[in-house]
Amino acid sequence: MASDTGALQFTPRPQAAATKKMRTAVALGSNIGDRLENLRAARKAIFDIPTVKAPILSSAAYETDPVGCEPGAGKFLNAVVEFEYDGDPARLLEQLIQIEEALGREREHSQNVSRIIDTDLLYCGEQRINDERLQLPHPRLHLREFVLRPLADIRPDLLLPGQKKNIRELLAEVEQSGGVVRQADTW
What we know:
single chain; 187 residues; alpha+beta; Alpha-Beta Plaits; two-stranded antiparallel ribbon; 4 helices; 24% helix; globular
């Protein structure tokens, strides 16, 4: 809206829905360097975010074949962490990007290349967001065995917004290539 001076004034949008506590999950992946240590460092950094609260759940770590990466890419270690989150999902996405950069991931890179750490925001409660920076729930979560298998460790009965099947049922439907192997129960 315009004021008497002609300057535009903006009314902040209400944040009530975005700041309620909600169960939130992040997928972690690494295929460069000490992969398990990279997952640990990312998990610790996520859990150090002030708006991340207990209860905190961590899946096992799974070794997986690279999907769509450059020829000769090494295998990934993948895991999922879930926690209570009290904040704006867009802000959490920014914090995840900062964590990736702090751990050595370069922002200017091709999609689906080898990486020290990759974090993907999977869901934030019942939030449904679809804009150029953030899509929730993650739009390909239901197609990726390397995400569904660790998520099934901690939330097999979870029904995501927009899905008619729970995580266990979605996992049963994806092509199981045998390329997802449990590596570490605790990490």
